[in-house]
Write the structure tokens for this entry.
Amino acid sequence: MLHSPHMTKANITTNNNATVTIEGELPHEALKKHRAASLKHLGSKVKIDGFREGHIPENILIDRIGEYTLLQEMAERALSEHYPLLLVEHKIDAIGRPDISVTKLAAGNPLGFKITTAVMPVVELPDYATLAKDAAKKIGNEPDLVTEEDIDKVVGQLLAEKQKAESEKTNPPAGGQKTENKEELTKMTDDVAKTFGPFENVQQLRAKIREGMEADKKRQHIEKKRVEIMEVIMNETKVVIPDVLIDAELNKLMAQISHDVEHMGMKHEDYLKAIGKTDEDLRKEFRPDAEKRAKSQLVLNAIASKENIKPDQKELDHEVEHLLSHHMPKGASVGERERQSATIYVETLMTNQKVLEFLEKQGM
């Protein structure tokens, strides 16, 4: 285990908002080791006539920048070095960017500091297996049946769309003669069915429609069951969600809104004017949704950990390669950062899927 060799004392306080505060001191020796690097860095930003950049004598440079500025640079470097060591030493599962402040800084004296960081919260799971079983039974295992009336509606929509297309084709803007066969376009015949795909007759078309609708109803049923299962489990789960996780989900929601707006051909600013809201208004409005999404992911992570649920490595690697090949510019090399981000993203999706499948099976 790594340790912070210069630490003289450190007090760890767990706060009630999913953060911890680390208060302590580093002896002056911990700062002193960063003096040369700090002088070099600060000197590269100072220009003095008669001296080359980066070659200003120490005494002249300190006269120009001030001893306290040098100490601040040394303190920043020392804390950047020791912060990750503190996390390892005290087994702190930190997330997000820490808030680091210097509480005491003077030449020849220890460096006092205070660090507050969000931590991965403890998730107190309920009896999720029983809750999932009850919720699944409530929804049932069979999706709604596809009726002949359901198929008739789709057939009617197909005919209406075809009639509209034929009408536009045979009636130019300046006017013209109508030539479409109203009888044919208001009734599905074998000949009309053939125009919608590789169908020999109406029966084949209706069979294909039924197959598609049954698949849709099955997907909807599974989604409904999963939503119900997660709702009951989340309602019984105790966890304090760090703001950093909520903000991360909120940023995703805001990015999705902007993407959808641009897809409609609007600028984000014009959209805000149209609805009479600001970005802050939207963030406030969607914060409850972001909090729910953050909690959902924490619950899924906790169940995956407890049940040791994880994707198959070969399958994961395959999906990562598939994602990178479709989202990276052609011929572009994939960096370590891009690959790592893609792996985390895909692994999260695949793990979530496996956890939800596990929960569904509790009711079978």
Q: What stands out?
A: The CA atoms of residues 267 and 273 lie 10 Å apart. The longest helix spans residues 202-236.
